[in-house]
Amino acid sequence: MKPKNDHLDLLPPLIFPGKTAKERKHIAALKEQGRIRSIGPRLYTSVPEDKLESVVRSSWAVIVSKLFPAALISHITALTYQPTKSGEIYLTASTNRNLKLPGLTIRLMRGPAPIASDAEFMGMKASSFERALLENLAAAKGTLVGRVMPQEGIESRLEDILRNKDEESLNSVRDKAKEISKWLNMDLEFKRLDRIIGALLGTKPKESLIGEHAIARSQGSAFDPKCFNRLEVLFAHLRHLPLKEIKEKNKSPEHFNHKAFFEAYFSNYIEGTIFEINEAEGIVFDNRFPSARPIDAHDILSTYRIVSDPNEMRRLPKSPEDLEEILKYRHKFLFEERPDILPGEFKTKNNQAGSTIFVHPDYVKGTLQKGFELYQSLPAGLARAVFVQFFISDVHPFNDGNGRISRIMMNAELYAQGLATIIVPNVYRSDYLLNLKALSRRSDPENYARMLLIAHEFSALDFSDYPGIKSTIESKNWFRESDEAKIIR
């Protein structure tokens, strides 16, 4: 007896009517054997009932292209290319009809046929972006309300063009939509689109806009919604989280200055400004600059001068304007020897680290303003410190130096409230960076906050005796690389 080849018996999840007599006979046999069943006109399935809805929804494009190849994918479906939350797909055709399938409703609406500018999609036609905008701005009532994307969504799509491209690209969309509106007799829809685009560009009244982000853009205070969403996630985590705050017990000048030195040394090390510890001591304490790297040496010295200035470290923002002024002042002081990175000026070109793209230059001020609202709503102390470090790091307002600035802002929050400041030593660098990325890329605030709480705890040492503390932190692996040792707490 030959072994059974199970793979020969496998059937596709969805089966459409055969084109030949042989194919139709095969389908009839499968149906008679109970291996497939009808779930709609000209459509069969071989999957169990409990998996059917998921299979149908995920296969919507295949189903539509097989059953209605002459129809036009339109309205909200032409913008999202997926079913709505209620499982609807919208098509423009020569007739009105609804086809209900498990987990999916295909709605055909009588309307204009495809035109030359419409896009190809799986052997069908789909409304071009400009036509889809007009379709989604048409009035919809009753059961057809779901066919259009809410205006906030349209505004977001248009605003994305401004953020990722430019005004010329948005004007091009408007010009193409105007021509299409003449072909399709959609003058009212174009006028509505024209008002929205004009408001985004600042040439028409902002009253045409509905979405908070689009309104902010029209007022010159556009913010990055993705960054702000991450800030909201972190804010929600910190708002009612009981934090173990460690008071700074040692008030001596020696303790303050020595800790400031190590903070400056390790903060620069994280960013790749690497010196041996004895070289850094010569730079800060003896004003002895290595001839080969005077600018790098200045980075360490200027960082030290900021974090060892008690008046500067007590200065906290009380308004968005304060926040901007403090950031620019500290950045200018820190990088006055690096004119190429525009000290004290917000970036004019977008920047990124690996696959992480930071806030667009046009949105820096608006995102700082929106983020400040969350910052101000947190209790002073450790919660604000944890928040502001990520806040500044994620916005990345400057061409360079954002990491150092973000850690200075964090420690200013702690110092002003009499709490132990945080140092991120070499051995903890990977923990720090990986958890920053986890929050930026996966909106994971828990591990990020825990990482800084641990650093707050192990940084609460007595730094008053310089030789003693240097020996102590060396024994705790602070000077080791993160891939060769773990921090000893």
Account of the 3D structure:
This protein has a six-stranded mixed sheet with strand order 6-7-5-4-9-8. The protein has helices at residues 21-32, 49-58, 60-67, 75-80, 129-136, 151-164, 167-184, 187-201, 212-218, 225-239, 253-270, 277-286, 294-307, 310-313, 320-334, 364-376, 382-395, 402-416, 429-442, 445-458, 466-475; strands spanning 14-15, 37-40, 43-45, 72-73, 88-93, 97-101, 104-110, 119-121, 124-126, 352-353, 356-357. It folds into three domains: 47-128, no CATH class; 151-218, no CATH class; 225-475, Fido-like domain (Fic-like fold, Orthogonal Bundle). Helices cover 52% and strands 8% of the residues. It is elongated. The protein has 489 residues and is α+β, with helices and mostly antiparallel strands. It starts with 13 loop residues before the first strand and ends in a 14-residue tail after the last helix. Helix 15 (320-334) packs across helix 16. Mean pLDDT is 93; it is low at 1-8. The protein has 21 helices and eleven strands.
Instruction: Write out the CATH superfamily name of the largest domain.
Output: Fido-like domain
| Beta strand count | 11
Strand order of the largest sheet: 6-7-5-4-9-8
| Beta strand % | 5-15%
Largest sheet: 6 strands, mixed
**Low-confidence parts lasting 5 or more residues at pLDDT below 50?**
1-8
If you compute it from the alpha carbons, what radius of gyration comes out, rounded to the nearest whole angstrom?
30 Å
The level 1 CATH classification of the largest domain is: Mainly Alpha
Summed over residues and divided by their number, the pLDDT gives a mean of: 93
Cα end-to-end separation: 68 Å
Shape: elongated
Number of helices: 21
- Structural class, from helix and strand content? alpha+beta
Question: Architecture of the largest domain in CATH?
Answer: Orthogonal Bundle
* Whole-number count of domains: 3
State the CATH topology of the largest domain: Fic-like fold
Query: Percent helix among the residues?
Result: 40-55%
